[in-house]
Amino acid sequence: MANQEHLDILNQGVEVWNRWRQEHTDVEPDLSEADLSDANLSGADLHAANLIFATHNGVNLSGTNLSKADLYGADLGDADLSGTNLHRAFLSDAGLREANLSRADLSRAYLGDADLSEANLSLTNFSFANLSFADLSRADLSDAYLRGADLRGTYLSRADLSRAYLGEADSTPTKFKSSCSTK
């Protein structure tokens, strides 16, 4: 359950939140199970925050710092995470269906069993990320950077991998379908 004090500060706006984070660098915010749907948190400093099982449907998290955040089981369907820093974030079992993660940094992030179906992942950095058993069906991975990514068991049916870089990626036995686009 979320820390009510942390939620109250966040509800005062991104500027107040970021100032509080700068003044309390030792605090790891607890926003677990919070419903932040449709909020505008663009540019918020949420690094190392506990967001497990939080609901973020339609939330604007563009340009947000979520590095090292725990988003286990979070519902981020249809959220805007474009340009977001998710370096080393934990997104196991997260729901990111139809989310916009274009130009996001997911390097070294853990996305095992996450649902990224129909997500916009174009120009996203997945270097050394773990995407094992994630659902990327019908996702746009055009121009994505997947160097060293763990794609074992990843479902890529009808995903667009045009111009994606897959050097050193571990993809066996990835579930590719013949309709997967690698133009």
Q: How would you characterize this protein structure?
A:
This protein has helices at residues 4-10, 14-23. With 183 residues, the protein is low in regular secondary structure. It is elongated. Residues 177-183 have low confidence and may be disordered. The chain has one domain (1-183): 3 Solenoid (Pectate Lyase C-like), CATH 2.160.20.80.
Produce the secondary structure layout.
Layout lengths: L3 H7 L3 H10 L160
Can you identify the CATH superfamily?
E3 ubiquitin-protein ligase SopA
Mean pLDDT, rounded to whole units?
A: 93
What is the tally of beta strands? 0
Largest sheet: none
**What proportion of the residues is helical, as a percent range?**
under 10%
Provide tags for this entry.
single chain; 183 residues; little secondary structure; Pectate Lyase C-like; 9% helix
Summarize the structure.
The protein is mostly loops. The chain is built from 2 helices and no strands.
